[in-house]
Amino acid sequence: MLNRVTWKSVRVSSVCASVVASASVSASTIVWLCALGAAGTTGCRGSSADEETGQIGAEIGEVMSSVDESAQGGATTALMWPTPLELRGPRWRGVLSALLPSANAATCGDTAFGACTAGVRTRSFDDCSIGLARLAGSATLSFSKNPLCVMAADGDTVTRTANFTLTGLYGGTLAVTSPGGGQTLGKTATGFAYTVGGLERVLTGPGGHQLFDVSTRTTTPLEITGTSRADRVIVSGALEITHHLAGYKVTLVPDHLTWASTCTCAVSGSLTGTLSGGKHDGKSATVTLTGCGEASIAIDGQTDSITLDRCMAI
Fold this sequence. Notes:
- The chain folds into two domains: 1-46; 50-89 and 105-307, no CATH class.
- Helices cover 19% and strands 42% of the residues.
- It has four helices and 16 strands.
- The two termini are 33 Å apart.
């Protein structure tokens, strides 16, 4: 049931707004009324995506947003990661946190890449907050054009590495690392070539039990045309996603994944491949992008909606 929880925040927001507007009760009463409103509107719904298809969406989103982050040079990028449901606290705690924020808690969205130093830009997270979770670690952009931190000529590259941990309210963690050297974006005559040497995400529950361990790499570099979000398209390549605990692997081939100037990821196009292992073993998969951060995945005649991690409107 944990992965099926949804919160009807619009209704809660309306209740809270009405109470605050009345100005006839104390601040503590407002807080508890809003908290109870949140608890009362918590419900369960059937998710359209299962564990395997959901993780495929998460990895596709991460790769596209990493391409965007590298191409932008860290100028305007998405937050590092949404907080997994397994790391979130009860909904009423979220309401309290929103209404009475900690004076000492820095928000991760306020954290930007630092200035270029010897060809390197770093985005450091010093126990900043994403909702009720805390993020510690860093992401680094290392430019071959040292010390300018630019990709001005064909052959110039930038390599993105990540090493950070998101810790939930009760101690669960999401650890993100870059085994195999991270992700490298190289400038070409027609755009860019993008290679993922390795990216791994491991989600561990508060009791120490691993919930997923997913890694991503390119088996063929992704070929990207265009020079900005306005004309960027991934036209070819191959992306391998491996879910180590579920025992499956899929290699997806992109077909014209096309950006929009208003999103950090592609908003149209598709990827196709065949799953090996797991409950969908031997079945073909097609992922079709339907908007910013949204897609559908069709496996063996069944189509589900999935969310793409780190893709956001700008």
